[in-house]
Write a structure and sequence with these properties.
Blueprint: H1 2-13, E1 16-17, H2 18-27, H3 33-36, H4 39-42, H5 52-55, H6 57-73, E2 79-85, H7 91-102, E3 109-115, H8 119-129, E4 135-139, E5 152-157, E6 166-171, E7 174-183, E8 186-194, E9 202-203, H9 205-221, E10 223-232, E11 241-244, E12 247-249, E13 259-261, E14 264-265, H10 266-275, E15 279-284, H11 285-291, H12 294-304, H13 309-320, E16 329-335
Parallel strand pairs: 2-3, 2-5, 3-4, 5-10, 10-14
Antiparallel strand pairs: 1-7, 6-7, 6-9, 7-8, 10-16, 11-12, 11-13, 15-16
Helix pairs in contact: 6-7, 9-10, 12-13
Bound molecules: S-adenosyl-L-homocysteine.
S-adenosyl-L-homocysteine (SAH) is lined by residues 26-27, 34, 43, 51, 53-54, 86-88, 91-92, 115-118, 121, 157-159, 162.
Amino acid sequence: MLKSIIIDHIRNHGPMDMYTYMQLCLTHPDYGYYATRQSTDILGVQGDFTTAPEISPLFGEMIALWVVMQWQRLGSPSQLKLVELGPGNGTLMYQVLTTLNAINSFNASCGVHLVEINPQFKLMQQTKLSALANEVVHHSSIDWLNRLQEPVVVIANEFFDALPAHQYDVSGNSWSEIKVAVYEGNLAHVNIPLSKVQPHLEYQPDTIKIMDVLCNHLGAHGGAAVIIDYGYWQGQGHSMQAVQNHHYSDILENPGKSDLSVHVNFKQMAERASACQLSYEYKTQRQFLLELGIQLRLAQVCASNPQKAAALTQGVHRIIDPAQMGQLLKVLSLYKP
Ligand code: SAH
């Protein structure tokens, strides 16, 4: 069990930082949530949480329109490499490819490159997408981009919030790192004093590494990326949370059994883009989807499918409503000008 592995580790090495704890909970090869859970236990109505493409097919249609704009910016090449980070059930890429295939003015053949760790998700993605693209290739990390020398268009929906984070605390001028210790046989938080001031209360080192690979690639070879996630520009406190069965649960209870996530720091991501001379735009999911014309498209599909109109309208409402997913989810898009 993961809990006893963590307890043993703490007994041998002292309190464990939240980065290591979250990393083990999500990606431990034998017990990690994303590495081992059944895909249906993770995503969708029966799973722990759901995402915009699972809620509305129009989400992927809008991302497809954004892809077409980036393809045109690249000079409408005859081949396009599409990359997705953490594609889950493959629903978003399915919606994107189906839409691209239906747009007459889009006439590139697409190669699809997916970064994914969950074996079941990989299988589902391959099955769902292989007929829609000229190749579907899996990679275990984004580092393969370092070997590629052509433009890419990258999509990441609710991927970065699953990357592990350090957590810090401040009281007056005294900083500490939040760690996990063993107390009476159970896991408990402890604060370990630090001599150095920290710039943030939460910090995801892997996000910076991934952004550096991505932005260096876009800077050198061209292309664009759209990153959609729960997150903020600045001023966030502690956001790490555990979700099981659509309900919040205790972060330290049942390690490996619930989804752990944090809100992402978009300002830090945008700084990596600026360092590589990329342009970026940052907006709420609501604004992004409204600007791409989601309401116009909703009216069209409702008119041609009156029997599905209520469900389609409800889905779109959920992803753009400020009180639901419209405001909390943000979109950072990057491109080489
Ligand atoms: N983008 C999808 C799924 C989001 S869930 C959607 O919008 O529905 C997060 C996805 O990222 C899952 O596919 C999960 O298996 C994958 N993932 C999580 N951590 C990862 C990591 N470290 N490397 C690669 N993929 C990861």
